[in-house]
Amino acid sequence: MDIALVEGDITAERVDVVVNAANSSLLGGGGVDGAIHRRGGPAILAECRALRASRYGRGLPTGQAVATTAGELPARWVVHTVGPVWSDTEDRTALLRGCYTNSLAVADELGAASIAFPLISAGVYGWPVEDAVRQALSVLRSATPTTITEARLVLFGADTHAIAERVYAEG
Predict the structure, then answer these.
(1) Torsion on CA atoms 4, 79, 37, 124, rounded to nearest 10
(2) Do 22 and 84 form a contact (C-beta atoms < 8 A)?
(3) DSSP at 94
(4) CB within 10 Å: which end of the chain, N or C, has fewer?
(5) Domain count, the chain
(6) Average pLDDT, stretch 149-170?
(7) Rounded to whole angstroms, how far apart are CA atoms 91 and 105?
(8) What is the rounded CA–CA span in Å between residue 89 and residue 93?
(9) What is the CATH classification number for the domain harbouring 39?
(10) Residue 15: which domain range?
């Protein structure tokens, strides 16, 4: 799988799957979640509501992933995953890594060839950017062979992109 670091807006990525750093309600919110719902239009929200009514009445658990249409996004699907909130007293790394692993598994089930991830949990959930990049790259680099040939880590802002470039170069 080729891994690319991209500075930009994840809602503009032309890929098979865009990953949404969702909140557990699946009903939209701020940050990446709000942007995906706004740009993708009402079809995404309609499928999320159906998921809440059928399989996820209590919300999507942290670290899990589920797919919906991409609506008006330039992608085929959105894979929603709920990242953990950073804690300096509890190691939640496995949950963060699970977001990437489970999103890849869902994308693979869909037959996707390309996927774009945001930097999960590094925004309002407070995960330190450098470690968030390290966790994302670790999962992507060690992923078992799938239908996915291209993974993009879409980073918001030049500072975050520069940190990601440095971590990527460190291997």
Answers:
(1) -70
(2) no
(3) H
(4) C
(5) 1
(6) 97
(7) 23
(8) 12
(9) 3.40.220.10
(10) 2-170
Angstrom distance (rounded) from CA 118 to CA 11: 10
**42 in Cβ contact with 33 (< 8 Å):** no
> Structure tokens of 68?
């919906």
The C-alpha atoms of residue 89 and residue 166 are separated, in whole angstroms, by 27
pLDDT, tens digit, for every residue of 37-85? 999 999 999 999 999 999 999 999 999 999 999 999 999 999 999 999 9
Using left for φ > 0, alpha for ψ between -120 and 50, and beta otherwise, residue 157 falls in left
Active site residues: 33
Taking only the tens place, the pLDDT of each residue in 96-110 is 999 999 999 999 999
CA distances from 2 to 81, 134, 149 (A): 22, 16, 6
Q: In this structure, what token pair is assigned to residue 69?
A: 């249409």
**What's residue 138's pLDDT?**
98
Kindly report, residue by residue over 27-46, the tens digit of the pLDDT: 999 999 999 999 999 999 99
Structure tokens of 33?
């979640």
The answer to whether the CB of 121 falls within 8 A of the CB of 83 is yes
Residue 145 has pLDDT above 80, yes or no: no
Determine the residue type at 106: V
Measured between its terminal Cα atoms, the distance across the chain in Å is: 15
Question: What is the C-alpha to C-alpha distance for residues 81 and 23, in angstroms, rounded to an integer?
Answer: 8
Decide: pTM greater than 0.85.
yes
